[in-house]
Specification:
The protein is mostly beta strands. Helices cover about 5% and strands about 20% of the residues. It has one helix at about 135-140, and strands at about 140-145, 150-155, 160-170, 175, 185, 195-200, 205-210. The protein has a four-stranded antiparallel β-sheet with strand order 4-3-6-7. The chain has a three-stranded antiparallel β-sheet with strand order 1-2-5, with no helix packed on it. The longest helix is centred in the middle third of the chain and has 7 residues, at about 135-140. It is elongated. The protein starts with about 130 loop residues before the first helix and ends with a strand.
């Protein structure tokens, strides 16, 4: 590069990659996704997991399910396998809702109330009877919209709620509200399944919530 040399007559190499400027077709200093691999060599320039990539700048996917590690909902299992379509990968799903709609451990065709996960009474049990007035009241409490993206409204009717708790699928408490409220803001939460516990004078009702 006779037209681009330093004071010692050595060809300049602006990005210090060993290739003089006049022959350099790529700026090795550019790394769009900050994954440590320059765009010249990066096979995934906008990696969703810049802190977990291979030597080519491609996000690692240890379980080969097509979902990169940083976005993997169920590490070690295929995130795309979901036989009951509840958005929980089969590898991490503790309940097949095709067989047990309320996930209380009692099969749907044997469950006295398959809408109440707290009721594990079998259909042939003598205790499987008409609901009391208080049970009817708490069953009328509902969440909407469900699925939700931002705000979840609580329709409580005549029921006075004393506490609201929201858990993730691992059973970890994410949100708790001790004061009376008819709304839950879930806009900041990842898209997955949650469980909302509604406490009232009539007891506790657990509702499954899908965050989109």
């Amino acid at each position: 590069c006779p037209n681009d040399v330093d004071s010692n007559g050595v060809s300049n190499d602006a990005d210090n990659d060993g290739t003089p400027n006049c022959n350099d077709t790529c700026d090795d200093t550019v790394d769009t996704d900050n994954d440590g691999v320059s765009d010249c060599d990066d096979q995934e320039i906008n990696s969703p997991c810049p802190n977990d990539v291979d030597g080519n700048g491609v996000s690692n996917d240890d379980d080969n399910d097509g979902v990169p590690n940083c976005e993997d909902q169920c590490p070690g299992f295929d995130d795309t396998a979901d036989v009951d379509n509840d958005n929980i990968p089969d590898g991490c799903d503790t309940c097949n809702e095709n067989l047990d709609a309320d996930c209380d451990g009692v099969p749907t065709d044997e469950d006295c109330d398959d809408n109440d996960p707290d009721n594990t009474t079998h259909i042939n049990d003598p205790d499987c009877k008409s609901l009391s007035a208080s049970e009817i009241e708490i069953k009328e409490v509902m969440l909407y919209p469900n699925p939700a993206t931002n705000i979840v409204n609580i329709k409580a009717g005549n029921v006075i709620l004393t506490k609201i708790e929201l858990f993730n699928i691992k059973g970890q408490l994410i949100i708790t509200k001790d004061s009376i409220s008819n709304k839950i803001d879930v806009s900041h939460l990842p898209s997955t399944i949650y469980f909302v516990k509604l406490y009232s004078e009539y007891g506790i009702k657990t509702v499954k919530l899908l965050k989109e």
